[in-house]
Design brief:
This protein is of the alpha/beta class and 256 residues long. Helices cover 39% and strands 19% of the residues. The protein has one domain: Alpha/Beta hydrolase fold, catalytic domain (Rossmann fold). It is built from eleven helices and eight strands. The protein has an eight-stranded mixed sheet with strand order 1-2-4-3-5-6-7-8, with helices on both faces. It starts with a helix and ends with a helix.
Length: 256
């Protein structure tokens, strides 16, 4: 517990300053229910539940490192797309973003809590997870414990912060972080955790145009698990839904 407190304080102080924004409300035609649930280390996680007219499943959306947080998926069209396909949708703010309050370190535990919440609200329908960039990293780290999740889609994941930084002061800071907080460091090694991913259908998408997450890093994550199908996307970072091939692959993964 002491490691969790110290690691959380360090992350919030050094890496996760000024991430809050909004709140932004969905447009009136997207009916939603505000929800809260407990996330990592007792955090109060805020979310929106969008109910499909005739649901056939529920999709948990894990946001990238953007101040829009859960609203990013509304802005980019994910929520409307999934509702139109008959999926309930849960969006949520990672702690340190939006309306969520609490420690901002163990995002994979926030994601796990969101998936469990969706499983409870889904009324017996299958639960799926879609993570984007930072959200994909969190989902990959949570994946060994997502045995109740039917499918998982990861956009531009990376294996670790060490690999993502690759060099410079941040890289050396992460090496020091791992040596000071070994249990925390192991919990956020996405490639090693993803090797034990529980969902049976997995899609990992990457793009050679990605200027933020090099495609080799996403391929490294995908290569850790033989169940993972990969897709090369013709779009920039955080723009994968613009690619019709990716949109088809996303929906096929959920519906298979």
């Amino acid at each position: 517990m002491m490691e969790r407190r110290l690691a959380g304080a360090l992350v919030q102080t050094i890496w996760l300053r000024d991430r809050r924004g909004g709140p932004w409300l969905p447009p009136a035609h997207l009916k939603h229910t505000p929800v809260t649930f407990e996330g990592n280390t007792g955090a109060k996680v805020a979310g929106h539940w969008f109910a499909a007219e005739k649901p056939r499943g529920a999709v948990v959306l894990a946001h990238p490192d953007k101040r829009y947080a859960k609203h990013w998926f509304v802005k980019e069209g994910y929520v409307e797309l999934l509702l139109a396909e008959g999926y309930d949708v849960l969006t949520f703010d990672f702690t340190g973003y939006g309306e969520s309050r609490g420690p901002a370190t163990y995002y994979h535990e926030d994601l796990l809590a969101a998936a469990r919440f969706a499983d409870h609200w889904a009324g017996g329908f299958p639960v799926h997870v879609v993570g984007v960039s930072m959200g994909a990293f969190a989902a990959a780290n949570a994946s060994p414990r997502l045995d109740f999740v039917r499918s998982m889609v990861l956009e531009a994941p990376y294996p670790s912060f060490n690999a993502w930084y690759s060099k410079g002061a941040s890289y050396h800071a992460m090496q020091l972080f791992d040596s000071l907080f070994p249990a925390t460091g192991r919990s956020i090694k996405a490639d090693k955790n993803f090797a034990k991913a529980a969902p049976q259908r997995i899609l990992v998408a990457y793009s050679p145009k990605d200027e933020v997450t090099p495609p080799d890093l996403s391929r490294q994550v995908a290569g850790a698990n033989p169940k993972a199908r990969t897709l090369e996307v013709d779009a920039p970072h955080l723009g994968f839904l613009q690619d019709p091939a990716y949109k088809r692959a996303l929906l096929e993964t959920l519906a298979a």
